[in-house]
Amino acid sequence: MLTKQRLRAVQNDSNVCADIEGFDFNAYDARDIEELRRFWLQYGVLRFKKTGITDAQQVEFSRHFGDFVIHPKQKQEGGHPTHTEILVISNAMKDGKPSGAMGNSEATWHTDTWFYERPPAGAILRAVTVPPSGGDTYFLSTYSAYETLPDALRKATDGRQIFFQNVYDKTGKLRLGKSTPGSRDFREWTGIVHPLVRIHGETGRKALYLGGTTEGAWIVGMPLDESEALLLELWDHTTKGQEVFVQQWDQGDIMMWDNRCTMHRRDGFDPSLIRIMHRTTTAGERPV
Fold first, then answer.
1. CA neighbours within 13 Å on the CB side: how many for 122?
2. pLDDT (tens digit, 9 = 90+) per residue, 118-139?
3. Is residue 283 packed enough to be buried (19+ CB in 10 Å), middle (13-18) or exposed (0-12)?
4. Confidence of residue 106 (pLDDT cuts 50, 70, 90)
5. Among 92, 108, 149, 288, which residue has the fewest nearby CB atoms (within 10 Å)?
6. Per-residue pLDDT for 269 more than 90?
7. CB-side exposure of 259: number of CA atoms within 13 Å?
């Protein structure tokens, strides 16, 4: 009788990603999923190389990691024609209109939907069509960002809360269902308050929680100028002082990340080249 190949997680050069070896998307069981979850919580980001799976397989695999979350873009241009769980990220055009979300421009460092009351726990992103170059995705650990804070910065962040407005997106467009606010002070707009340092709901580890931009973000109770200065210092520490893993995509690659303890960004790419990615997103807890 053949012995089933054991799953392995091979850590990359960074402190935030591991390659998964020995996982068969056509034949896995509860023990395999349990092991993957352990690796996911340990490393923050997992990579599966050149999987060749279908949309249906991606959806079924994702179910094992929590309830689905509908990304805001799925309600606009990023909906999938048959699998409502999938966000289509694409710069391809169909009948003169975008066939997916997010185009070909650069996406700056962020944690997914940080402006939600319950931001997603994780995301599973699969490369359907990739250009020969460009569109690389970068990941870093916000555990590490917190753990490497100088003492003075750590004292300034512990116990603090951060407010994120949820009226405008990072490009300055009104979010779906929002209207132009009457006040110029974003602190008076609708938004959400989260801890600046969150405790991961499963590992219990502390992670810095900066969301996706300094614009429209305020450390509650601080004078605005002091808040802006501290946030800029924290962003600089996080995005310039941490090890980063760079994913250069091949068709069929899957990246699976823990949104509670990582940040990511994307390079832009030549608009004449087509890049299509299919993403599923899983529900998370309210940050504490």
1. 24
2. 999 999 999 999 999 999 999 9
3. middle
4. confident
5. 288
6. yes
7. 28
Q: Does residue 204 contact residue 198 with C-beta atoms inside 8 Å?
A: no
In a shared domain, residues 31 and 96:
yes
Domain containing 81: what range? 9-141+245-282
Same domain, 172 and 137: no
Q: Is 273 left (phi over 0), alpha (psi -120 to 50) or beta?
A: beta
Separation between Cα atoms, residue 16 and residue 141, nearest integer Å: 6
Residue 254 has pLDDT above 90, yes or no: yes
CA distances from 175 to 22, 102, 163, 170, 214 (A): 42, 14, 17, 10, 17
Radius of gyration, CA atoms only, the chain: 19
Q: Is the pTM of this model over 0.85?
A: yes
CATH number, domain at 63?
A: 3.60.130.10
